[in-house]
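We modelled the chain as a single entity of 192 amino acids. Its sequence is:
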Amino acid sequence: MLPTPQSQQLQPLPGYATSPQPAYGQAAAPTRILHIYHEGLSRRHGKVLDSDKQTVLYRIELKYISKPQAEIFRRIDGAPFATLCFHNFGRGIDMIINGELIKFKKTSLLAIAHEFQSLNAQETLRWKKDGLFSGRNLVCLNSKEQLVAKFEHSFSIKKGGKIELGPDVQGVLLDELVVSGIAMIEYLRRHD
């Protein structure tokens, strides 16, 4: 029987430093948890905090009518490094990260899953619902069906949820996973 994404341990992508896998029964390598918070009831402004829940890694600005519908900033001030444009009929999402257009495409008509070609990892990454009755919980899998990241939805008014990443995810791959994760979260919110 194949392991389900819920039971898989987060694995770093090829090309990144890897820690040896622990033996059965030993503690797994620590993962990095990022926390997504919303400001106000409109949920138009948000931020992504590091594991310490203090350090702001990203700031999110959502727009409901004008394009781009989302802008993501690395710092509190400055220009956005990423934008998201949601297609009304095609169900696709255009992500622009550091000036590079990345097509985030729906994988099938019925499934709630989107995939994109990672510029950094040189492979296809796919965000999908974490099981049939998972609500808004998501998993990101690589082309070998290995778990790369997880999103766990929060039912709090201020906290949107948390993204769990492998221990060695950083740099451009971190940007891609956070931006694509935000895109999927916003896609689900818009289509509920």
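As a brief sanity check on the tokenised model: The two ends are 33 Å apart (CA to CA). The helical segments are 171-190.
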